[in-house]
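ARCHIVE CARD
CATEGORY: sequence design from structure
SOURCE FIELD: tokenized fold
FIELD CONTENT:
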């Protein structure tokens, strides 16, 4: 009975390990050097090197953001197909003196991920007043 339980635990651990490896291999990955402090959904990213990973979704896409300190998660409002560029980049909007990541374009997949801005940024800035900055995403 003990051997059967141990064998089942080994098979379960192997299955989980293979599943995690498959998710890691089946994901968009890249890195970017953020020149300014920026808000990305609920996350606040400091200037410096960051990584991103987007597992290929069966449903809702989720972007995992990594830095030396921690991993954050951002959920796009929507995604759309784009064909005009093979480059990958982040689009940052400057609103009331602060930067907000409002889109990530993946040249690898031809998809644009659109992210919400913080409520106070949406309320405080009239339409059309935002400055923009593009940050290149490498190694996708």
């Amino acid at each position: 009975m003990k051997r059967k339980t141990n064998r089942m635990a080994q098979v379960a651990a192997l299955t989980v390990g293979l599943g995690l490896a498959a998710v890691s291999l089946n994901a968009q990955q890249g890195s970017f050097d953020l020149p300014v402090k920026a808000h990305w959904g609920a996350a606040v990213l400091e200037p410096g090197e960051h990584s991103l990973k987007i597992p290929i979704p069966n449903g809702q896409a989720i972007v995992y953001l990594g830095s030396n300190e921690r991993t954050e998660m951002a959920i796009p409002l929507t995604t759309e197909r784009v064909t005009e560029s093979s480059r990958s980049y982040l689009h940052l909007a400057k609103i009331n003196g602060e930067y907000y990541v409002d889109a990530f374009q993946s040249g690898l997949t031809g998809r644009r991920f659109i992210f919400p801005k913080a409520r106070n940024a949406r309320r405080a800035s009239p339409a059309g007043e935002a400055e923009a900055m593009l940050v290149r995403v490498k190694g996708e």
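CARD ANNOTATION: Confidence is low (pLDDT under 50) at residues 11-25. The chain has one domain: 28-136.
SHELF: design records, drawer C
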